[in-house]
Amino acid sequence: MARREAPLVALVDVSAKMGGVEFSTLYLAQRMDRTKFRPLVICPEEGDLPKRCRESGVPVEIVRQPRLLSSSLRIGKQRLPNPLSWLINCALFVIIARRVARSLRQASVTLVCTKGIFAHFYGGLAARMAGVPCVWHVQDLIAERYGGLYMRLLGMAGRLLAAHVIADGTPIQAQWRAYLPERRLHLVYNGVDIEQFSPHVDGSAVRAEWQADAQTLLIGNVARLTAWKGQDYLVRAFAQIADAFPQAKLVLVGSPVFDNDAFEQRLRQLAELLGERVIFAGFRWDLPQVLAALDIYAHVSVEKDTSPLSVVSAAASGKPILCTAVEGVTELFTPDRDAVIVPPKDVSALAEALRALLNDAACRAKLSEAARQMALQKLSLDQFARNCEAVFERALRHDR
Regarding beta strands 321-324 and 340-342, do their DSSP bridges make them parallel or antiparallel, or are they unpaired? Predict the structure, then answer.
């Protein structure tokens, strides 16, 4: 008797360029239990995500799409809603959805999981056209400006198109409670490979690249270079203590978001007087080695930031973590046990926390061990994949 194939799950991603959402797509596709589900990644174009998927043996379908427009426009220093772009995008969503639906039917896809805000719209429509259930994996907090207009639009669409919604942090979960009953809303923290990100990884080659000898203490941040990630506050805080710690350097790993380098130029101006003490490392693929090279990991977002993969990766790597008290990050930690937590946008508090950590090797070691244990307990990639699969199973049972 022929063995029945596992259901095929299409992970519909909004981008082929690697970011937090795309890494979670890659990780989920790699770690899916093939006896339960088979992955297919659908991307709008060729790029790093399709390449990495294929290298991992994950099938990829490229569905070309017209360029979608920004939902707002800038007038002076203000951003305002752009209703014309909404109308145009709605028409484009239908066009893209038809293309994606055609691919879903041809591949005999059983379930769709959408990744990224625009993908939720056209992927949800495509699933409806193909007659298969859809799960929205929501990893974006929606701006609350304009009286919550954007969230209301997304919430109404989700109510119609999503059988279930996976939120990767409690702030996202809270946003969706007004639109979906609890039984259709699921909290699943991001996870990483705890063997790939581990205290045993060798970061010596990266330290040598950054001219950091055994006495050098490296403070690192891994994130897109954008204002809400708060790197400007970190540079200012480091400037306050740099003279007291000549053996310390600050490393900013990441590139500008949406190819807008204005914020990066601002950071470089802030760091100019510090010279080679601040390293702009750009985007890096070798994140396990980058994190292994660091002595302190600083995550300094100024807004809600839901279970960021960089923080999850740093915890799994056993780094002493300093983070700001923003929703979505602090829920991962117990203050002063597995992380030091300071108020957001407070340069003085951030500088004093850095000073204390740089002065206390025993405290750094204690935080490192606690962070690693926390990651082992609740942030492994296997836990992430199994929790997502449980939602997929409910969607296939039409359990709403």
Answer: parallel
